[in-house]
Amino acid sequence: MNTRILVSDKLSKEGLDILEASGIPVVMKPGLSEEELCREIAEYDALIIRSGTNVTRKVIDAAKRLRVIGRAGVGVDNVDVPYATEKGILVMNTPTANILSAAEHTCAMILSLARNIPFAHASMHEGRWDRSRFTGVELNGKVLGIIGVGRVGGEVVKRLRPFNMIMIGYDPFLPKEVADNLGVKLYDNPEEVYRQADFMTIHTPLLPSTRNMISMPQFRMMKPTARIANVARGGIVNEDDLYTALKEHVIAGAAFDVWCSEPPSPGEQKLLELDNLVTTPHLGASTVEAQERVAVDIAEAAVRYLRDGVITNAINAPRGKLDPESAPYVPLAERMGVFMQSIVDAPITEAEVIYYGGLAARDTKLLTVSAVKGLITGIVGKDNANIINALPVAKSKGIDVKESKTDRASNYSNMIELKVVSGGRALCIRGSVFGEEPRLVNYCGYRFNVAMSGDLVFLSYRDQPGVVGKVGTVLSAAGVNIVQMAVSAKEGSDKAMMVITVDRNLDKATVGALAAAAGGEAKFSDIAD
């Protein structure tokens, strides 16, 4: 049976040429409805898409031979990735192809905002000559604040440094040494950036922790002459508060390429009426070069996989090449990484994955990469973390990754230990698998046997009577149900550790109330099932 590729969205000629040159038959059918795609997809091994095709559960069920879905772009919101994974279908994207275009668009938005170019352009096309009305400001000597000094933010810095701007930034996952090399003064909190910046640009993924990160309290911290640009994701800035801040001149201006709803919903249309807001319809990646790169990257990745079995730019971790004994430890390793990233208070600079028992005799590279993928998921977001880019991203964030194995005796036949250094402080957790269930068995020397899934609360406190009752009272008052609770003491220490599985996410106020009730520290971690 011959391998076949279906392309269901428009793809640049450069990408199509690569597919056709592979010798694999390619069919181009853009604009298919879900029903039409379901009828068409049955006889194809690969599906190449952009944002126009929704790969739903229904489509996946209809795809009898499908082995790979290739998304020419970053986001995979239009693909049911969990169901594709369940069906053994590899999902790929192109995570780096848009970086330069997004950085250049950010610079264009900042310059347009500084010199009132869109408004002056519109005025002239209406037959007016209002020179004094559109007096702008220079970038020279101004402070540029970067929220998220990552790959795009770093490229923005390189392009605006020749304008003699002063660079400051906030990125809780970036070591100071990396920021110093870029010429960015890094602050421990975003408030300092809000207060000092003349221009501010956002380059962080949309996560629960970054949604509405900039709202009215943050706008009121800014200078009245401040201007803000967002070419990252809609939802990071509260749009209702943005409207008020611009309307009442709390800040001087804004330039936005991304929106909570795209196209903007009727409720967002009021923003488009403002004369101090520069807008574009999500054009950050809309350059000829970026469109060519995403097409070329996904075409090359799909051909390599179909022809040679080589996996690149994978969104969902492949497990087929692991032996049956090691496969259950992939979700354990990834969840250990997610958990560790959620509890640290400073950027991680070192990470070591140690294998005990039977695992020490096996090929554990994919397990280590899975643990690192978990570590970076909280930094770059789920869409941008995969087993292919985990190690390069970790390196770019200043994380030194090591793997080791030991034949030292352990209480478990197979066990993984994850050690990290964060802010000069060493932390360590251990995990194992019982049946098919990942379990946490040790936290910094405290022994447990807790499922690594769902919503977990960790409390460290002085070992004394009455703490369990106080903690239960706080959770009860918050309407939170305790699913499981475990308490552990460590020989030679007056500290105890409590782990609680709860039935929902906890807000910061509840976590703080738990710490106060216990008279110690509290950490909350949301680990996906």
General description of the model:
- Helix 1 links the parallel strand 1 and strand 2.
- The protein has a 7-stranded parallel sheet, sandwiched between helices.
- The protein starts with a strand and ends with a strand.
- The mean pLDDT is 90.
- The protein is α/β, with parallel strands linked by helices.
- The protein has helices at 13-21, 34-40, 57-62, 81-86, 99-114, 117-125, 151-160, 176-182, 190-196, 216-221, 239-247, 288-308, 329-343, 365-380, 390-396, 467-477, 508-518, and strands at residues 5-7, 26-28, 46-49, 68-71, 90-92, 143-147, 166-170, 185-187, 199-202, 227-230, 253-256, 277-279, 348-357, 400-405, 414-422, 425-434, 437-443, 446-451, 454-462, 482-489, 495-502, 521-527.
List the helices and strands and how they pair.
Blueprint: E1 5-7, H1 13-21, E2 26-28, H2 34-40, E3 46-49, H3 57-62, E4 68-71, H4 81-86, E5 90-92, H5 99-114, H6 117-125, E6 143-147, H7 151-160, E7 166-170, H8 176-182, E8 185-187, H9 190-196, E9 199-202, H10 216-221, E10 227-230, H11 239-247, E11 253-256, E12 277-279, H12 288-308, H13 329-343, E13 348-357, H14 365-380, H15 390-396, E14 400-405, E15 414-422, E16 425-434, E17 437-443, E18 446-451, E19 454-462, H16 467-477, E20 482-489, E21 495-502, H17 508-518, E22 521-527
Parallel strand pairs: 1-2, 1-3, 3-4, 4-5, 6-7, 6-9, 7-8, 9-10, 10-11, 11-12, 13-14
Antiparallel strand pairs: 13-15, 15-16, 16-17, 17-18, 19-21, 19-22, 20-21
